[in-house]
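Before a colleague's protein record goes any further, I have to sign it off. My question to you is simply how this chain folds and whether the tokens agree. I do not need a full report, just your reasoning and any doubts. This is what I was given:
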Amino acid sequence: MKKLINNPDVVVEEMLNGYLKAHSHLVRGVEAHPRTIVRADAGLKQKVSLIIGGGSGHEPAFMGYVGKGMADGVAVGNIFSSPPPDPIVEAIKATHTDQGALLLYGNYQGDIMNFGMAADIADMEENIEVKQVVVKDDIASAPREEAEKRRGIAGEFFVTKVAGAAAEEGLSLDEVYRITEKANQNVGSMGVGLSPCSLPQTGQPSFNLEEDEMEIGLGHHGEPGVEKSKLATSNVVTERILNNIIDEMDIESKDEVSVLINGLGSTTRMELYIMYDKVETLLHEKGINIYTSYVGDYCTSLEMGGCSITLLKMDEELKPFIDAPAQCPMYTQS
């Protein structure tokens, strides 16, 4: 990213132009705002509209998850910055079919303010009913008694998957909201940072680590974790992170979980699969069953080194939504 022109507006606009050209069969822009992208078939099916969004630099989140079975529209902010209210409102308007809209986003101050303003505008000016779900899956970012302060990280993928499938099935706004919030309450994540990314607007690293250091619980924007320590083996780090999530979520033997091993941008698939191997072994030893698994880059931070583990505690109601097909530019499930 250091070699790109260091104007965040230009970087994002050029990215969006290329994205829309490359995936015009699945998504389209909205003339009313250049930072709004919707499904190519938006508005053709009577259904709840699912609108997501957040800062750029986390690709494939968030714009990569617009498509059948996932989100109907996305508002794209600058790198690591919340989108303003206007593109969110335009996404709601461009996708709604009188069934209402669900806004889904991570627990960050800018997102809360701007998505909240957009919901108010859609309600007051467009008479569109809007509900909101704020994802708070990062267990390292606040203790259990202050869970409302937790950040949204890779677990947002699972929550989006459930919400999109529920909306695609034609459920009411109240039901889509209920099921989405259930998934939100059943998901927990924790990560480790190994190296920073560089921000194109400054050319500087997003945080500082020595060559032999790692940070447990690091946030996706470089927010401080719970501990900075010497590098440890993948097995040691995986066991610590996984045990923290299991304890925090009160997951017990005979429970069933879906697993997401998420790379932060520059971590190889080889390393991610090494981590998954350890996760599967540990869960098996604890008598915890894996329902389904995902390994790869699902919510990144430019070229940051590191990864995270996410568990979604499953039940019979959530399973069909996790299993449902999806077709998006950056994610497909058959």
Observations:
- The CA atoms of residues 19 and 329 lie 9 Å apart.
